[in-house]
Automatic annotation (TrEMBL):
Protein's UniProt name: Serine palmitoyltransferase small subunit B
Family: Belongs to the SPTSS family. SPTSSB subfamily.
Oligomeric and partner information: Component of the serine palmitoyltransferase (SPT) complex, which is composed of SPTLC1, SPTLC2 or SPTLC3 and SPTSSA or SPTSSB. The heterodimer consisting of SPTLC1 and SPTLC2/SPTLC3 forms the catalytic core of the enzyme, while SPTSSA or SPTSSB subunits determine substrate specificity. SPT also interacts with ORMDL proteins, especially ORMDL3, which negatively regulate SPT activity in the presence of ceramides.
Coiled coil: none
Length: 91
């Protein structure tokens, strides 16, 4: 079963890389040029992710909460009655 999972993951990654190379026309480049373009893309994406997490943590947290709310995923500590309640009281 684990071998089948790895095979499925490898096929999915291979398929995604094929789409990436066709969309960006990387398939027609020389291997050295392909290496440079892939390196630039990886560096730019990693810097964008790093900058987003470091400089906008509130926005990232809000987006994660929206994703959790939209998908209905709950943590183990949540119960049905606790959703939507607030701890502040109005005086």
């Amino acid at each position: 079963m684990l071998q089948r999972l790895w095979r499925h993951l490898a096929d999915t990654l291979r398929h995604a890389y094929f789409h990436y190379s066709v969309i960006l026309c990387i398939a027609i480049l020389e291997p050295a040029e392909r290496y440079v373009i892939n390196s630039v893309v990886i560096v730019v994406v990693s810097l964008l992710v790093y900058a987003t997490v470091v400089y906008m943590p509130g926005h990232v947290t809000m987006l994660c909460q929206c994703f959790v709310h939209l998908t209905g995923i709950r943590s183990h500590g949540d119960s049905v009655g606790q959703r939507g309640t607030t701890s502040a009281t109005i005086s």
